[in-house]
Structure to design on (216 residues):
């Protein structure tokens, strides 16, 4: 925290042009003491000017301490939040969960089930599977689906691997309908990434905040 001090040669306190009118607390006090020590006895420092400088210093010092207290409180809250997330994530290991996301791990050929939530009254659905290079490798026309929570069963005919799936639903007028895809899997580990907790389900990684359902 720094303090402006007019009329006390503040420009020489630093060589940084952007901080020429700023002083630290210790510099402020040193200059204030020097000013009192070398003032002209015949023309002492005006009492109101001296009081104003002291009041300014006291006010900024209080704000500095208040900011430090807020920073400490935020750090403590962040630490407690991470501990809570870690405890929740650890309790999910071995459990089947549902989380927002459109990743899927195909173990072998055959049909797969895709949990989704379709907005409105639904429409005609088409599912496309995308590989790691961003190429559409399979397309399945599902047909009519209703609105709300749905489980789509399709047979992409793909080799084992990790894919992304996109679901397109068009209403009777050919307009796109909102679709929220989900990941359905068993949590086998939790990971820490930049202060957040991530759930691991095989090769799939899902942020803990994407969790929507814990299944028995």
């Amino acid at each position: 925290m720094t303090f402006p001090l007019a009329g006390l040669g503040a420009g020489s306190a630093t060589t940084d042009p952007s901080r020429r009118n700023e002083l630290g607390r210790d510099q402020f006090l040193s200059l204030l003491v020097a000013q009192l020590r070398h003032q002209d006895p015949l023309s002492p420092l005006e009492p109101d000017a001296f009081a104003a400088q002291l009041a300014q210093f006291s006010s900024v010092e209080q704000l500095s301490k208040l900011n430090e207290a807020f920073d400490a409180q935020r750090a403590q809250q962040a630490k407690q939040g991470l501990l809570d997330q870690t405890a929740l994530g650890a309790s999910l290991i071995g459990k089947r969960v549902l989380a927002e996301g459109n990743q899927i791990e195909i173990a072998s050929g055959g049909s797969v089930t895709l949990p989704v939530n379709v907005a409105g009254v639904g429409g005609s659905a088409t599912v496309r599977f995308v590989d790691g290079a961003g190429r559409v490798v399979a397309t399945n026309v599902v047909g009519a689906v209703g609105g709300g929570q749905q489980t789509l069963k399709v047979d992409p005919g793909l080799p084992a691997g990790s894919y992304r799936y996109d679901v397109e639903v068009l209403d009777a007028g050919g307009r796109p309908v909102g679709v929220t895809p989900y990941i359905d899997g068993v949590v086998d580990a939790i990971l820490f990434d930049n202060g957040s907790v991530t759930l691991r389900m095989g090769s799939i990684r899902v942020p803990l905040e994407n969790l929507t359902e814990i299944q028995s």
The CA atoms of residues 74 and 80 lie 10 Å apart.
